[in-house]
Write a structure and sequence with these properties.
0% of the residues lie in helices and 49% in strands. The chain is an all-beta fold. It has one domain: predicted glycosyltransferase like domains (Thrombin, subunit H). Strands 2-3-4-7-6-5 form a 6-stranded antiparallel barrel.
């Protein structure tokens, strides 16, 4: 029997630049500039080599990210809801916007 997809909002494959950084100073200071693998109105999924992400971590996500700063850039507060270990050295990180 196939597993049911519990998502309420459809995801789309979308490669868009984002910047992710911890919302809390106790989680360290870093900026992770990546491309999304997919996105929805409620969150994003991306691959990263950074090992500091954990379920429950609050992060700021700038979407889309461009340098220098663009007025179209928006920063969202999100929470890591899944960290997947892939077959490579990268991890898949799912962030839900709050």
């Amino acid at each position: 029997m196939p597993l049911m997809d519990r998502r309420y909002v459809r995801r789309v494959k979308l490669r868009q630049p984002i910047k992710v950084r911890p919302a809390s100073p106790r989680d360290g200071e870093f900026e992770d500039i990546r491309q999304t693998e997919n996105a929805s109105k409620r969150g994003v999924y991306f691959l990263t080599e950074i090992t500091r992400y954990f379920v429950g971590m609050r992060v700021y996500v700038t979407l889309p990210h461009s340098s220098p700063a663009n007025p179209k850039n928006r920063e969202y507060l999100g929470q890591v809801i899944r960290v997947e270990h892939t077959t490579t050295e990268r991890r898949g990180v799912a962030v839900q916007f709050l």
